[in-house]
Amino acid sequence: MSEFSVTPTPNSLHGIIRVPADKSITHRALMLTPLLQGETRIENFLDSETTRATLNCVRAMGADIQEIDSNTLRVNGRGLHSLQEPRDVLWCLGSGTTIRLLSGICAGQHFLSVLDGTPALKRRPMGRIVEPLKQMGATILARDNDRFPPLVFRGGNLRGIEYALPVASAQVKSAILLAGLFADSPTTVHEPAPSRDHTERMLRAFGVDVSRLTEHSVRVSPPQRLETGDWRLEIPADFSSAAFFIVAALLVKNSELRLENVGLNFGRTGLLDALTRMGAEFEIQNPREENGEPIGDIVVTSAELRATNVGGGEVPRMIDEFPIFAIAATQAHGETRVRGAQELRIKESDRVVTVAQELRKMGAQIEEQEDGFVIAGPTKLRGARVNAHNDHRMAMSLAIAGLIADGETIIEGWECVADSFPYFSTALENAGYAR
Ligand code: S3P
Range(s) for CATH 3.65.10.10 in the chain? Predict the structure, then answer.
C-alpha cells in the first residue's frame, strides 16, 4: 500500500491545469464505438485502471481497438451486432460504471457472458440493473438472490419497456438505454431527478433516436444500425477531477487557477452551484460544444465561504463531489447540511462513513446522518495519518485537506488515485504546490 504525504503549501496556486479526460465519457466511448460501422479515432481518452477494465472487456467481446499513442485509440467499428461471446469472465475490476453499463449491452446479446470484479465490486448493488433488464427479457443470474456480482447473462430477444428508476442513477439509466438499442420497440426511462446524460448525448451523436420527453424522462428507439463513416471523438477533461483543483484554489489563499477543456454537462456541475451559494465566483470561458457535450474553461479564485444546504435534485448533479465538497464545508462559516444523499453509502466506499471518519482525524466537526452529513465550520484542520479506503475520490480530497492543514498529512492507500487521476501529484505541483 503506498502513502502520499502533504504539507501546507507555502505558495498559492496559480496557472493553467489540464486534468485527465472524463472517466464516464471514456467508458461510454469504449463501449459504443465498436458498435459503429467504421473507424473512430478517440483522442484524449482516460488511461486509468477502471477504463482499462472496460477496454479489456470489450476487446474480449471482439472489439478491434488499437492504441496509437498514450492519448489516442483507433477503433475499427464492426456494427451494432458484431460482438462475440467472450471466452472468459469479463473482469470489471472495481468499476461500477463498467459492470453496470456493460450489463446493458450484454443483456442484448444472444451469447453467454459473465461479469465480475474485485471484492469491493462484489459489494456494490446490482439488483437495480438486474430487475429492469430481466423485465426486458434477458436471462440473468446473480449472487445472493440476484443482487451482487458475479452477473451471468444470456441475453437477446429484448422487448422495450417503460421503467421508473427508484433513485436517480446515470449508471442504471444507461444500462437500460443501452439494452434498449437491442430491443424490439422503444424503451422509456423516468428518473426522480436528472442525472448525467452522457449516454444519451453520445447515442444521439451516433445517429440514434433518443428523445427527452420531459426533464425527467428519456426514450430510445432501437436503431437498424449506428452511424457509419469515420469519427473523431475528443474526450473533454473530467469535471470530477477538476473539482479537487476548484476547491484547492478556493481554499488556498491568493490562488487563481484556470482549468481547461472541462466537461460541463448539467448532470455533473452541481458543485459549482453549491459553491456559488457559499460565496465562490467562477468564470466560464470559451463555452462550446463537442460531440454533443458542453465544454469550457473554468477560472476560479480564492474566496471566503459560508455554509449552505444541499439536497434534492442537486445531489445526483454532484454525486461524486461530496468528499471534496466536505473539505470546502470545513472552511465555511456556519453549518453545512447534506440531505438526501443515501447513494453516497454505496460508492467506491461508504462515503458518509469514510468522509466523517477521516475528516474527524483532522479535527473537522462533522456529524453523520443516514442520508448525508452536517459539517460545522470554519475549523483549522490539523495534519494526520488518514486512509483512502480504496476510494480514489477520498484519497484526493484528503490531499487537498492536507494543503490547508497544520503539519503533515499522510494518506494511506494512495495507489487508488490510478482509478481516475494517475498523475494527480504532478498536477498539484504544476499548480504551484511545494513542500
Ligand atoms: C457514473 C454515474 C454515477 C457516478 C459514477 C459514474 C456514470 O453513478 O457516481 O462515478 O458514469 O454513469 P450512479 O449513476 O450510480 O449515481
Answer: 3-21+236-430, 23-219
Q: How distant is the alpha carbon of residue 251 from its chain centre?
A: 24
Would the pLDDT of 227 be above 90? no
Ligand 1 centroid to Cα of residue 34, in Å, is: 22
Kindly report the pTM of this predicted structure: 0.98
Averaged pLDDT, 162-191: 98
How many other C-beta atoms can be found within 10 angstroms of the C-beta atom of residue 335? 15
- Asked about 419 being catalytic, the answer comes back as no
**Residue 129, C-alpha cell as written in the block:** 440493473
Pocket test of ligand 1: the residue of 48, 97, 174 to mutate, having most ligand atoms within 8 Å of its CB, is 97
Strands (E), 292-408: 293-301, 309-310, 334-338, 365-369, 372-377, 385-387
Contact 234/26 with Cβ under 8 angstroms?
A: no
Residues with Cβ < 8 Å from 119, sequence gap 6 or more?
none
Q: Exposed/middle/buried for 287, CB within 10 Å: 0-12, 13-18, 19+?
A: exposed
CATH code for 3-21+236-430? 3.65.10.10
User: Angle between the 170-180 and 198-205 helix axes, to the nearest 10 degrees?
Assistant: 30
In this structure, which amino acid lies at residue 313? G
User: Quick one: cell of 152?
Assistant: 451471468
Nearest alpha-carbon partner for 185 in 157, 204, 217, 207 = 157
- Taking each helix axis as running N to C, give the angle between helix 49-60 and helix 96-107, from 0 to 180 degrees, rounded to the nearest 10: 20
26 Cβ neighbours under 8 A, 6+ residues apart: 42, 45, 46, 51, 54, 235
Please, are residues 433 and 13 in contact by the beta-carbon 8 Å criterion? yes
- pLDDT for residue 180 is more than 90: yes
pLDDT-based confidence at 56, cuts 50/70/90? very high
Pick the CATH number of 23-219 from 3.10.310.10, 3.10.290.10, 3.65.10.10, 3.40.50.10610: 3.65.10.10
Q: Which residues does 192 contact at the CB level (< 8 Å), separation at least 6?
A: 165, 166, 167, 168, 216
Ligand 1 binding pocket (C-beta < 6 A) is 24, 97, 169-171, 174, 195-196, 319-320, 343
Which of 420, 399, 413 lies closest to 324, judged by CA?
399
Distance 100 CA to ligand 1 centre (A): 10
- Tell me the residue type at 429: E
Catalytic position from the list 297, 320, 391, 419: 320
